[in-house]
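anyone else get weird line breaks when pasting these?? whatever heres mine. first is seq + tokens for prot A
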Amino acid sequence: MAKKILVVDDDDLVLIALEALLSPSGYDVTTANNGDDALEKLNKKKFDLMILDILMPGMNGFELCGKIRELDEYKAVPIIMLTAKSGIEDKKKGMEMGANLFLPKPIAPQHLIDLIKKSLE
């Protein structure tokens, strides 16, 4: 059974690119373009991993990560923050909110696939 990944980013091009990258690797990719949309999808389907952007209108990625970690079924699910905000303080806050990995954009496609594979083991 394909591992299910939720990708949350307000940039449609990023969503399209990540879906195009991950689907051929055998992942079932669902996209959301904001935090509220992501939470709605989390209630309808069980995901094995999430990739979150930080800078989004409304609820940012930090807030979304914290809300996801409050859900019992997602306390241990890997969360990767993939973002243009790559400062030390941002990384620290991401980890405090419950992210497992904090990756700067842009990222080499194969490196991202390798990190996802490792996170799902």
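and prot B, same format (seq, then tokens)
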Amino acid sequence: MNRFVFHVRIISYLCSMKTKASHIAQYRLFALLTILTLCASLQVTAQNTERRPNNTTYFSTNELPDPTVYLPVPPDTASTLFVGDFMRWIWGKSVRSTERGRQASWESLYGVRRMATVYGDAMNMKITEEDTPAIWRLLQRVGETGNKATGKAKRKYMRVRPFARMNEHVWGEFDNEWDLRHNGSYPSGHTGFGWSTALALAEMAPEYQDTILRRGYEYGDSRVIVGAHWQSDVDAGRLAASAAFARLHTSTEYSEDLENARAEYRRIKGIKAQATSAGYPHIEHIIDSPADTASYHYYGDVAYYWQAKSERNTLRGEEAVTDTACTINYFLQTYGACTNIPIDITSTPDIAAYVTYVFDELCNACSQSKSTGFRLRPFVRMGEHSALPEKDERYSKSSSYPSSHSIIGWGIALALVEVMPDCQDAILKRGYEYGRSRTILGFHFKSDVQAGRLVSSYTLARLHNEPDFRQFLTAAQKEYKDASGPTPED
């Protein structure tokens, strides 16, 4: 029973009570005032959250990757891993009175209307349902799919939100506090909506990819500023959105909507139909620089370093050592263990060729991202040896940020989801753990790994504009379908 129905029944009961005549007028006056208050409350709620039309997603929750499988449990407040969330909460409160804080409050409005303004500004154009119906439709359907991708984890963990945990009020202008208190914090649904939309628009409009992706990144961090989400909720929301975005590319409806939106965008912008040469997005324009040791954000990385280090002398630590391999054959082997058929150069040459192409492109993305600066590796910063001392000298001379292994490992996982969506959860879990291995060994901070996963997600979005990539993908999908046999849908 929703709140409105509950209150109406109470009011009806009060109005029908048989009691003293002197009290009837009071009851009826109370009922009238309560109804007026409820109507005003419902009007505010309608303004703060857009009504979500039915059938606006490309996949149901059960068809999308399950974040309870491939993502970790959210940090408990008694865990040292909570340090990063706590410090980011302090940061969020500290910027509320600034222009960035006002932006975060304004961005608390959920839905396609706010996304249309956010990304319309990023692309220097006006997006409305009347003037740009194809782009509007893409925004709505992709965003709602990205939000839906967080649903299973939200319901399973029902994590308490920062403002509730800290006994405060949510600071977002358009946030409905009652709804947020009864909706899980992990992962962030707003972030799922915003980041999936950013990826789709970067694919549609590569000329504006850096500004689009930057606004999508900021939209997630805005949830930390207003106290609606912890940073780990936002990080998980971005990964859930990336996984959902990979799954989107198995939908013919998404392909049709994307092409219609792209044609509309090019017509408005006067862009010729042939592919542009925008190159890949630039990490320094999209993601915040890694935390300096003088910043309190750094404490989250340190806490995670010590927790991950404790796993070195375990079976998981042994797996981390194995994960130092970063070759085509290793990826075919490790992801092949997650699929229904053997994957190798001999048995599945088209899938192997596809993985090879993606691997090479992700390596190019690694080179571009690494060239933006130099960050000391965790084992160097801590004055220790890594889990593999024989590799210390080589790794101490290269930058920790972002993690190249994470770019390649998560990127190949996303690429394989497009080929074999029936194995998506196992593939994504292996891809996530491959990146986490880098923190266990002491070669990367957690923020290096997280940044690497974001790089791979937007690199894949850009790759879909390349004819060679699409040819490799189509061939791999056909080979997998032929090898695995007909599906129930067939």
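btw re prot B: The domain at 56-272 is CATH 1.20.144.10 (Vanadium-containing Chloroperoxidase; domain 1). The CA atoms of residues 67 and 154 lie 9 Å apart.
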